[in-house]
Amino acid sequence: MSFEWPWQYNFPPFFTLQPNVDTRQKQLAAWCSLVLSYCRHRKLYTLDVLEAQESPVFNNKKIERKLSVEAIQVVFEELRKKGNLEWLDKNKSRCLIMWRRPEEWGKLIYQWVSKNGMVNSVFTLYELANGDDTEKEEFHGLEDWMLLRSLQALQTDGKAEIITMDDGKGVKFF
Question: Is the pTM of this model over 0.85?
Fold first, then answer.
């Protein structure tokens, strides 16, 4: 399945941050939506700012336009404010991208556990994210850091407990 680009993607001014405040807000909202949709489609969880400039999401070769590194930083900062991005370093060169927040992943995981009658069951993190039983689930292949945060959110809600096992971490659902 190929990614469907929004109409703005082929509109050259989209690749230049607009000076008008209202226009810029709409533009940033569109960029945030595009970045999250693209990362979701490609199942990307980490981004490098310099590499991002060359990626298709910020570089439309068809119209020969790309967003500047400074503008990418502005988009990323907007995503951070919304809770969809976390910087991995002080230089703000690499980040975690959360096209779905940990609480949302936790909810999806718990729905699957409940739907399949697996409450009071124990899983290894590997089984949960990479097991045969979860192959058709959206959380299949979820990176460990996000899986752990999702389970921590469930633990906070009293729906799960993260446990340490001989071969790593596991989780019990309630």
Answer: no
